[in-house]
Amino acid sequence: MRYSGLRLVAEALRGHRGWKPLWRDPEPQKDYDFVIIGGGHGMATAYYLAKTFGKARIAVLDKGWIGGGNIGRNTTIIRSNYLLPGNEPFYELSMKLWEGLEQEFNFNAMVSQRGIINLIHTDGQRDTYRRRGNAMLLAGADARLLTADEVRERAPFLNFDNPRFPIKGGLMQERAGTARHDAVVWGYARGADMAGVDIIQSCEVTGFEIADGRVTGVETTRGRIGAKTVGVAVAGNSGRVMAMAGMRLPIESHVLQAFVSEGLKPTIPGVITFGAGHFYISQSDKGGLVFGGDIDGYNSYAQRGNLPTVEDVAEGGMALMPMIGRARMLRSWGGVMDMSMDGSPIIDATGIDGLYLNAGWCYGGFKATPASGYCFAHLLATGRPHETAAALRLDRFARGHVIDERGAGAQPNLH
Ligand SMILES: Cc1cc2nc3c(=O)[nH]c(=O)nc-3n(C[C@H](O)[C@H](O)[C@H](O)COP(=O)(O)OP(=O)(O)OC[C@H]3O[C@@H](n4cnc5c(N)ncnc54)[C@H](O)[C@@H]3O)c2cc1C
After folding, report:
1. Residues 94, 367: contact at Cβ < 8 Å?
2. How many CB atoms lie within 10 A of CB 116?
3. 20-76+182-250+342-414 and 113-176+252-340 agree in CATH topology
4. Contact partners, residue 278, CB within 8 Å, separation at least 6
5. Would you say 252 and 412 are in contact if contact means Cβ atoms under 8 Å apart?
6. pTM, whole model, 2 decimals?
7. Superfamily of domain 113-176+252-340
8. What DSSP designation does 118 have?
9. Which residues contact 366 (CB under 8 A, 6 or more apart)?
10. Structure confidence by residue, pLDDT tens digits, 149-184
11. Which residue's alpha carbon is nearest to atom 37 within ligand 1?
12. Distant-in-sequence, close-in-space partners of 68: CB < 8 Å, separation ≥ 6
């Protein structure tokens, strides 16, 4: 069923009795050509495998429900404002895919290019952001340095004269913005299902079947499923899942929290990030202020965080925009982040034939969803990395070719 304005009118006249579930709920088959573990980036991967690369006999297995992982828990920010050549072309590919995504999979994912401003608080920071903006322009992205007055025009409520963190300007990417996170995965799931992909929920992978150095299937809570090729995209569970294949990853799992306030009238013009602390904020279409900050700082597989981080994030918000102290916080939640040693992701083959890995997304995997799915599908379908993901290798840590945007070193808690 294609969605359109006409369809909406027709269904309204029929009392909305014709709508169908977005995807089927099939029993797992005995074997597939491609088994993708994880229904976040994994769903986008299955979509592109079927639609772009013309592959069939594909299943996505998820231990929970579609949208229950980080893909439905993030603060919805999409952007491509990176510095390093290993990252920027990849995230810009993602941005371009976002721009046509809703038309491509015929689903309203509320992609809204309302812009992002990274605030500048020191002269040194201005130099750094100018450099980053130039790198973005060279990679075909958009970037603009704003003066303090230009920032004030857009966001007069910010604390410009804070004596410790005065606002001296900002780096703006106008094409950045937000998308409704769970609608993104629903759109991919619907598109994948229509292309013949089996989406199997409540199906936890509990082991790999490996013979003569080649993966031949997976053990699951719903029985054994044979597979010629297996793609693993399980975010915060990457370490646990790959351990079942005998691999130890350069990844730590940390909890990251997000927060939403009561609904307010339109206030925040786009996405704003504090440059002197870790705090980022936007406003949802329902009016809630959506914001977040640092990871909790200890290893965890729990999808909820602790109060000291709530306080830390609130302090960041108060330093940046004291008026936020008047808003009531409605909800908070957490997700398990796959923090890599250099803060950049991994899309690569493993030492086991037919077994591929997509992981290490840290804070920033939501914006990457389209490119991650596309590039992982490219790798699974052709056995070769996509040109924009060629640097996202698993062995880069051993070779010393890390992609450390933040320059923090091998400190996953700092990226
Ligand atoms: C609070 C928060 C805020 C964030 N904000 C942003 C943001 O604003 N912008 C941005 O770009 N990124 C953001 N991120 C990061 C982004 O959400 C993630 O990097 C990205 O969604 C991770 O990829 P994924 O979608 O594949 O993960 P997930 O959606 O977590 O998918 C992994 C799936 O694997 C399944 N799984 C795990 N183990 C197994 C198993 N053994 N068998 C079967 N299935 C299994 C899980 O159930 C899960 O559904 C945020 C994350 C959080 C938690």
Report:
1. yes
2. 25
3. no
4. 293, 294, 316
5. yes
6. 0.97
7. D-Amino Acid Oxidase, subunit A, domain 2 (3.30.9.10)
8. E
9. 70, 71, 74, 76, 77, 78, 179, 181, 184
10. 999 999 999 999 988 999 999 999 999 999 999 999
11. 234
12. 62
Angle in degrees, 0-180, between the axes of helices 369-382 and 181-194, rounded to the nearest 10:
30
Q: Is the CB of 275 under 6 A from ligand 1?
A: no
Please provide the average confidence, as pLDDT, over all residues in the chain: 97
Task: List Cβ neighbours of 323 (8 Å cut-off, separation of 6 or more).
Answer: 157
Query: Average pLDDT in the 404-415 region?
Result: 90
Atom of ligand 1 nearest to the CA of 62: 44
Mean pLDDT of 341-363: 97
Confidence (pLDDT) at 144: 98
Q: Is 68 close to ligand 1, i.e. is its CB under 6 Å away? A: yes
Q: Which helix (H) or strand (E) holds 101?
A: helix 88-105
Check if 118 has its Cβ closer than 6 Å to any atom of ligand 1. Answer: no
Instruction: Give residue 70 CA to ligand 1 midpoint distance, Å.
Output: 3
pLDDT of residue 104: 96
Task: Categorize the per-residue pLDDT at 413 as very low, low, confident or very high, splitting at 50, 70 and 90.
Answer: confident
Structure tokens at 106: 């015929």
Q: Which CATH architecture has domain 20-76+182-250+342-414?
A: 3-Layer(bba) Sandwich (3.50)
For residue 307, what is the enclosing H or E element? helix 307-320
Q: Which atom of ligand 1 is nearest to the CA of 338?
A: 19
Cα of 235 from ligand 1 centre, angstroms = 5
Please state the domain extents for the chain: 20-76+182-250+342-414, 113-176+252-340
The answer, yes or no, to whether residue 415 has pLDDT greater than 90, is no
Using the atom order of ligand 1, give the atom closest to the CA of residue 64.
47
| Res. 414: pLDDT tops 90 | no
pLDDT tops 90 at residue 86 = yes
Residue 295 banded pLDDT, cuts 50, 70, 90: very high
pLDDT > 70 in the chain, percent: 100
If you measure from the C-alpha of residue 123 to the centroid of ligand 1, how many angstroms do you get, rounded to a whole number?
36
The pLDDT score that the predictor gives to residue 360 is 98
Q: How many A from CA of 237 to the centre of ligand 1? A: 9
